[in-house]
Amino acid sequence: MSYSEKALEFLEAGKIDDFNKQYDLAYHHDDDDMLYSLAEELYSYGFSDQAKQIYQKLLKKFPDEDSLRVDISDILISEGETDEALSQLSFIGKDSDAYLQSLVTQADLYQTQGLFDVSKEKLLQAKNLAPDEQIITFALAELLFTTGEYNKSIPLYLNLIKQGVTELSSVNLVERVGISYANDSNFENAIGYLKQIKTINMTSDVKFETAFTYLQLKEYDESINLFQELRESDPQYATLYPYLGQALEQQNKNEDALLVFQEGLSVDQYNEKLYLLSARSALKVDDQELAENYLKQGNNIDPDDIEIILELSNLLVAREKYEENIKLLTSYIEDHELDPQFYWNLAISYDAMDDLTNAHKYYLAAKPYFMNNTTFLKSSAMFFRESGDIKNAISLLKEYVKLVPSDDEAAFMLDEYQDY
Prior knowledge:
The protein is mainly alpha-helical. Helices cover 74% and strands 1% of the residues. The protein has 25 helices and two strands. Strands 1-2 form a two-stranded antiparallel ribbon. 40% of the residues are buried. This is Tetratricopeptide repeat protein. TPR repeats lie at residues 204-237, 238-271. It comes from Apilactobacillus apisilvae.
């Protein structure tokens, strides 16, 4: 038995001191082939320092053996020594047998640095040189998947599946195709692949994507069942709660939906969107106070979330909390451009507070945005009429009567101003 073989036996037995002794003997006495095999085994076990030491020794002896430079570079990349890895790879020319391997290693290196475009360029060069090399096709597909170019990754995965390859590097390619279709909003094709995966073999991410896809296809029972399975197996998977709640709402299970949103908030208490969904759900079960509470909490987390501010403003107006609404919107208007609905809500609030000057100001500000809204047209026309702004009252009444010619009251008021 060689020193290398003895070293590996001690390593597998967990006898590190004996391994170190045998490794030292192997390093100095075993032949080159045995040492190279030892380096490969050690790297697979995570003993990269010893593996690199052997590769470097062999490279010194065989300086034209470029595959050793690739092996060393792989280790350097895993250690974060990217500059040194690139230096090693730069010695490998296009005519080298290791050039293809070098391109793949460079792609890996650039990907770890977040230089995805450069990484893709290297992989495309490699694929051009070896179009049928499965590992290169897979690496390119994975890069495209990672960077969100799902429609480009799908043909590559499918090419491998057609060759009978359904798994590479512990990655299920059928899953990848299904998730890629789902992320590309092609839900019909997505579910065809995702439903091939047994639930017991699904990761949390795949369960979520499958349940989400069922939701988009309006197959609510399947969506709910799978979201609930995910909740049981991985209750900290915060993303599931908004969608499970929405699926339940589609079946008019509003009380159940509210409980799901509330459970989600216990998992992710800083998710302002969950507060918004909880508020909407509370309104569906006719609990305005709870809805207001959730909207205020969401507003505290993200004071600039215009959707939450709008819903809170609408609710404050509906609950006749005009002073609160004015305070909410005027603090926001200082630094932001308002949604047109905010102008209308401010006008209503100031009118209710008998602040006719500000009410007039905000009805005018809202006017250009709601000329097709019959509720706005009539209510604002009445305000202008009562406040003495006959010109605006007439213009709004004219627009209103065009849309609602059957409203005799409005037509009569307009007739009053026929001399204007």
